[in-house]
Each structure stands twice: as structure tokens, then as C-alpha cells.
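Researcher: Please translate sequence to C-alpha cells.
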Amino acid sequence: MVPSREVEKSDFGNFPTDMVMLVSIIKESDTKYRLTGINILNHSAESPYYTPNDPEMARIGGRKGTAPDQVGNEDFTEFYGTSIGRQPSQYKGKVVGYIIHASCWVLFNQVEGLKLKEAKLAKLVQVCRKHWRKNTMWRLYDNNLRISSRSSNIPLEVAILIAEWVCPIKHTLSDIKNTGNMLLVFGWNLPDWFWQRRLDEGLFIELDKLKKEMSPVGWQLRLNLMCLVVGRTEFRSSSGLASRERVLKSILALEKPYLTLESAKEKALIEKGKKNESQ
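Model: Translation complete:
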């Protein structure tokens, strides 16, 4: 047994292709889940599995197969791996868990907003179950140790749900930073409406040129702009942006009356022209 942090930072160049490092989310009740440590399992292994109880520890050696050194060991949990959907009837009354590749779980910990505490694991399971039950292309395989295709992409709906959790509409500077880290790690492309609900793009007329040229407005640029206006107190202390907002609001307030007046003038000229023609 070694600290899991050491395993997460290590590069196992000659790691056996038929083995995989996993962490597990153990279901203790419908509302309580706990994270385990890292264990190595064979792709062809069948339930029950064994995993270290301590999420800070990892088992990277020992006997092969069902690992008899773990059977009856109070430092390990015996559980049955299942998909995150409806629990199979044959596992009723047994301890079940959801298996996650250790490398995938590390990615979550690279994003501050996704550093899940045990209190939030139930929420994560609920969110995943709701979306993945209806998505057959992104469901967990019946064989929980099978490695999914590298070309698999997380459904956009799930990506948006996670992004909204990390960066709510009323966000902080820390939320913006977490969002940037998340997009850098996962490479998601969020829809325009996600950004428009969090950034008043009308305040930055420079974006109009990019849109007219059909140039994509990157998430890095949007996050940088969000940093400028993230806090109303900080925003108000920035005289440049505060003045810009005040002036733009005045201009927009003048736009409708101006167009109405122009329309009235044009209509009057047309009527005058018709009257002259009739004479």
C-alpha cells in the first residue's frame, strides 16, 4: 500500500495492457456514497471486487486474481461493480459500487469546482444517472473494466450541466478560473447561449467585428472579459468600463426614438411627394 497521490503522479510506462487502475464510489444508501482508494484489477476479473477503504491510499502490488490477501481484510471493501443506471436485481442486499478509471478521476481534481467531497458524491451520481440512463452511447458498460473508445465524447448536455455547476450565472473570479481549467482539460465547446447568459457581450463592441467576420469568439477571450466585469463592486471601481456601460446604455436608449423619428420623417417625405405628384 502506498499513498494514492504518489500513484497519480507516477508514469507507469510498462503497465500491463490487461490491467487497469481504478477508484470506486461505494453506495452505502440512496443518499450516501463514499470514495475509495486505488486498486489494480484485471479487465477479465469478475465481481466481487476489492478496493482500499482509504481514498488516500493505493494498492499497486500483491497477489493476482481475486487477491485473497484482501478477502476479509478490514482495510478493504468487497463490492459488486454495476452501471450507474438502475441497480441489477441480483445485487439486492449486496454492496455495490461504480468503477472509475483512476486517471479519469485525477482529471476531476485538476478543476477546483469539481473537487468532489463525499457530501457531493450523491449529487454527482444523481446527475450522471439522470443523463446517462437515456444516452446509450455514453452508458457504462456491463463489463465495468472494459476500456471505452478514445473517440467517445461526453454528451453535450452533460458537459453543459457540469459547466453550469462550475460557473453559475452569478459567478465569482474563482468560478471563472475553474471554468478555464475545466475547458483546458476536457476541450469542450460550449454553446453561445451559455456565455451570453454570463457575459453582456453588448458591452464589448469589439466582438461585433469578430462576429461579422464569422470568426469564432474563443472561450479564452470570453473568460478574460468575464474577469473584467465579474464583481459589480470591482466593476464600478473601473472608471473605463463603468463609463462605457453608462454611455452604451444612453446610446441604446436613444436608438429606438431615433429610428422612430427617422421613420416618421421618411413617411412625411413620401406623403409630400405623393401630394406634389397629384398636383
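Researcher: Any highlights?
Model: Residues 2-152 form one domain.
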